[in-house]
Amino acid sequence: MSDSLVSVLTALADDELILGHRHSEWTGFAPHIEEDVAFSSIAQDEIGHAAAYYSIIASVTGGNVDRLAFGREPSEYRNAILCERDNDDWAYSLARHWLYDHADAIRLEGLEGTAHDQLRALVNKMRREERYHLIHADAWMKRVAHGPIEGRTKLIDAITNAYDDATALFEPFELEEDAIKQGWVVVPSDELRRRFVDRIAGILDELGIPMHFHKRADTSAEFVASSSGDLIASDGQNGQVEPAHDGFGGRRGRRSPEFGALWDDMTSMYRAHPGASW
Amino acid sequence: MTYEEKLERFERHIDNGGKVEAEDWMPDDYRNGVLKFIEMHANSEIMGAIPEREQIPRAPSLKRKMSLTAKVQDEVGHAQLLYRVAEDLGKGRDAMYADLVNGKSKFHNVFHYPTKDWGDVALIGWLIDGAALVTQAALLDSSYAPYTRVLKRICAEEQLHLRHGEHITLELAAGTDEQRAMFQDALNRWWLAIIHFFGPRSNVEKDLLLKWKVKTRTNEDLRQEFLDRYVPKILELGFTIPKPTPYKDGDHWVINEDDIDWTPLDAIKRNDGPETARRLGLRKRIYDDHRWVRDALSAPTAHVA
Question: Is there a contact between B293 and A90 if contact means CB atoms under 8 Å apart?
Answer without folding.
Answer: yes
